[in-house]
Amino acid sequence: MEQSSCNGKLDRRDFLKIMGLAAAGGTATALTPAQALADRTAFRCTADLGKPRSWKRIRRAFILDPQTTYMNIGTTGSTPRQILRNYNRYNKIVARYPWDMHGEWGHWPYTNGLVERIAPQFGAAPNEIVLSRNTTDGMCSILGGLNLQSGDEVLFTHHEHVAATSPLHVLATRHGVLLTKVEIPVFNATEQGFVDAFANAVTPATRLIVFSHITYKTGARLPAEKICKEVAIPNGIPTLVDGAHSIGMLDLDLHAMDCDFYAGSGHKWQCGPGATGILYIKNNFNRLRQFWPDREEVYWPINSSLAEYPFLGLQMQMQYIGNDNYPAKRALADVCDMWDRIGRNRIERYVLALAKHCRQQIRDAFGHDVIMYSPDAPELASGLTAFNPFQDRTDLAALTTFRNRLREEYGYIVRTTDFHVHIDDAEKEHALRISTHLFHSSDDVEGLVAAMHDLFTKMNG
Predict the structure, then answer these.
(1) Global pTM?
(2) Which residue in 40, 94, 132, 317 has the most C-beta neighbors within 10 A?
């Protein structure tokens, strides 16, 4: 059923046009001779991207169960077939040559070449990137190491993940740090609404602003650059951004965003191995020293085996945590290179177009009054779609049953989230959360929506 493309709608014809964008892809990253064997076949599927069938070749690069349609990348992604082969080979190298890994990783601490490959893809310098274990690892490393003291205030949103709220709770109970929860808009959200929410919350005691670039609860994409440049920097406040759902989905430029810290995941939308992540620290903490001139020490590298050796440089201090999972980090670099060859801007446009198509299909099936928690505004949208088809949006049992039956009877795998729409709401609302990524198609979206509508009819018949 073809819809008009007027009034912001995205019909199937428009969607296919976006799928076949002819813009140039990302620039290939130079590989060392030691990497060439592993990487020479990893990206054959990405050729000829100007045609929709090229996305089919990309989808064939993944080994997802063909009996199901996996749409929960927000929890964990799926590592491509060739990257898995390389990862297996890397593990065998470490097992066979545990002393020096046969020179495959270069000089100690064995991650410098990987960081040099990854950093430019995110608009960062190599000395600003640390390969971490996941978003939580990065968030805890920053929050635990910052010299926050009693009476200092940290702003964070009421839709943050426990990766932020848990270490913040430690700071409050252990050091007396004041935590101020900022209510961000859910319905009728605008960029200015997000900016104003933070601007109105800033006080003379505010020492740090923490927020998710994309909230895991509703999929709202916050205007990170505006929050940094219009609120944080003019007030001399550093920013820590939870980027769990943006790395691998969006075409990021961290220098342009101008945040101070950015912690992201390698295993979600970037589809790397488990226990991999990317942590960005702007310019060796130099701006933080300007923002906090009253603190002789602004940060201690608590998660490091080299904390007592500052002459090595902060990046090496934070990168070296003793023996590491070098094969996993190298596989992360490989999959980042794969994304770079496809073109990160292309992936972003494809994913956002697919999510827009998903939201429109849901409205067509369930009616335009269906409760959609994810913003429609292009600048606030992401690859996550959150909605609830039931009248009682506080009924977790009904939505959980719906989610489970959708998986068991129709083969579509999604998840649920819960949140307060407003901070002072007595009860949480619940939503189905759908992730659409580069290995999905419009047929996947339409099949999911048809299955959800059929199941909804059965449950309400």
Answers:
(1) 0.89
(2) 132
